[in-house]
Amino acid sequence: MKAIPYGRQFISEEDKEAVLKALTSDFLTQGPEITKFENAFADYIGAKYAVAVSNGTAALHLSALALNVKEGDRIITTPITFAASANCVLYCGGSVEFADIDETTYTIDIKKVEQLLESKPIGYYKGIIPVDMAGQPVNTEGLRNLANKYNLWIIEDACHAPGGYFFDSNNVKQNCGNGHFADLSIFSFHPVKHIATGEGGMITTNRKDLYEKLLLLRTHGITKNPELLHKNDGDWYYEMQELGYNYRITDIQCALGTSQLKRADNGLKRRQEIAKKYNEAFKCISITTPEINDYDYHAFHLYVVLTENRKELYDYLRKNQIYSQVHYIPVHLQPYYQKLGWKKGDFPVAENYYDRCLSLPMFPSMTDEEQNYVIEKILEFFK
Ligand SMILES: *Cc1c(COP(=O)(O)O)cnc(C)c1O
Questions:
Q1: Do 268 and 252 share a structural domain?
Q2: Which of 6, 184, 188, 331 to mutate to test the pocket of ligand 1 (most atoms within 8 A of CB)?
Q3: What is the CA(378)–ligand 1 centre distance, in A?
Q4: How many domains does the chain have?
């Protein structure tokens, strides 16, 4: 059997045709495929607006810029995430505060967030960046209540959760990233994520003001929109109105994204099926599996187990051609963040999680045979 990675993209014949079509069209970038992908993605998520960008990190950076993050601003995020969720604040000159994670969901602990907020005057913190860790929808409704009380904005890092949802306190279904509770939500289309475009990212929102600002910032802060120009010297005329970037995505990538998006629901169902089978297979061994009441709501970007024998299990699986992964090394323990003053012991729940977590192979094109083999090796290890 071939080596089994923890995540892998799937490219269909239809995907290849879509890319070839884009390659032979008039536009390689800044053409119609971008809006097409944006509209399809906004529809899928149930948000009003979507802005496609070059990658998930660019989506975070642009989101922070659109919300005016600047020197002196303090933002709260989780230590258990990819570093980019915190870095985007530093890019803008702001600083990051962490709130420890919840023991069972591994997402930011809302009680810890509240404690932080209560300990300072209103206005001390400007925003919060929660993460739908592993595909588990974070409680954006609860965070929105805090945000309203303490005058904060919310950027939901939904990279792990396209298709995930929860029912809010009014029993209304809320898709991750739908713009109902968060001001902005961001996604990544890196090959290990649900939808692959090579590199790629998306920002969703229901706020028109932010949507328009993001469009400007994505492309140098330059506009040709006659409604926005201060004057108009002629058809060539454009204005640079903000200090923006080139964070554009290509038509080639968006054609692939639109084609991949058509299979997103099937891929998600397959992820949930794989998670369920793992959960059932590991019932009688001593590892902690995700606590799931309903497999439907969880987007299962990752299938994370906790074990005291993490290193031994990782090595054992590797020896057997199974490449599990660790998500994540707590951001505050990265040398760069330690230089900023964080240290071991600051967030014990996150650190304890890190000592034991392991992400097992999880991707829609994983065959039953592959999963059975992974299960067999894990049961063998615990025998
Ligand atoms: C993948 C990921 C990112 C960054 O996305 P890129 O497209 O790789 O820049 C940010 N946050 C989380 C939680 C991610 O998983």
A1: no
A2: 188
A3: 28
A4: 2
Q: Which of 53, 63, 82 to mutate to test the pocket of ligand 1 (most atoms within 8 A of CB)?
A: 82
Cβ neighbours of residue 378 closer than 8 Å, sequence gap 6 or more: 281, 282, 285, 287, 313, 317, 360
Q: Residue 96 corresponds to which tokens in the numbers above?
A: 């990051």
HSE value, Cβ hemisphere, 13 Å, CA-based, for 325: 14
Over residues 84-130, the pLDDT tens digits come to 999 999 999 999 999 999 999 999 999 999 999 999 999 999 999 99
Please name the amino acid found at residue 334: Q
Q: Which structural domain range is residue 303 located in?
A: 264-381
288 and 226 inside one domain: no
